[in-house]
Amino acid sequence: MFEHLKEKPADKIIALGQAYRDDPRDTKIDLGVGVYKTPEGVTPIMRAVKTAEKQLWEAETTKAYTALAGDPLFTDAMVGLVLGDAVARDQVSTIATPGGTGAVRQAFELVKMVNPGARVFVSDPTWPNHLSILAHMGMEMVPYRYFDSTTCAVDFAGMLSDLEGVRAGDVVLLHGCCHNPTGANLNMAEWQSTVELLNAKGAMPMIDIAYQGFGDGLEDDAAAVRYVASHCPETLIAASCSKNFGIYRERTGILMAVAQDKATKKITQGNLAYLNRQNYSFPPDHGARLVGMVLTDDELRADWQAELEDVRLNMLKLREQLAGELQKLSGSDRFGFIAQHRGMFSRLGATAEQVAKMREEHGIYMVGDSRINIAGLNDRTVPILARAMIDVGV
Ligand code: LMR
Question: How far is 368 from 352, CA to CA, in rounded Å?
């Protein structure tokens, strides 16, 4: 039967990483996949995670299964981290998942199970894998305007006007903070208007939050998701620990479903555990356990927060530097948006041809839509990128 398989298009973010590795030039610069790097180009294991790992090695006496929905040490701590006390705990059902992507997939599975005809509204643009998973699952998706490529800011009027088209039972996928790929985010007033519209239409928000702590800080980055969860009757939230705990390969994420009441929560919880069982049975435990340990130990948590804050401030500094350098070279303020964007990414507004030219002539690798990973830069490479952008006519 395998001969009947059709070629699949390569994932463009993953393929870009391979192209970078295959490039023999030692001047090449990797601004592709969303992985944090220090100025030395290293993706470190965070101190608190390493300490928790040592403690776990000493203390762990069995590798027997935990709970189907994941260990409560992890899921409870994550509800606290993401939702704070915005909603009552007895309204929130949870499953641990293999990464944030696993949570996204399980969220779509849940939606499809309840309402096979549900349409999922997605920002244009969004993380390409959102679209790929929806297409793979045969779910209908409807893009809504999000990014204005002239101003490189959110096109909120366009977004609201497109969301006027949602119907009861539809799902609207939103990025909780640090929008991927653009770096342009809604302000609080815009979140409020969005919630008002969704509630009026009877559509459900689904929030993907993969970069909490990378934008304006752990609490500020959670403000939107907390607002939505406490103002909508039901909310789905997919959260990733890959980036803010730096445990990418451990595959650690969580899906939360905020229900209207305790009884609905109970049945939702059972369905989420069922979905874990059908798709991979028990979720991975190692990364989840480390996160649970870090979040529930005062010392580890303080150290993790301090390191995460350094990561965030480093990216902010790089944003300022790049915007400043471009201002100098172009003699205009048109790149000021880079300092306004938040999170790991910015979409620069370059054309596909300009992106290709930067790769071919300057060895600078960014996603074809001109998304850069800010953390791929350092003091030395910021001026190189700025010069290349001006050279190719961005
Ligand atoms: C990204 O957007 O680069 C990250 O979320 C990594 C990935 O899996 O695509």
Answer: 6
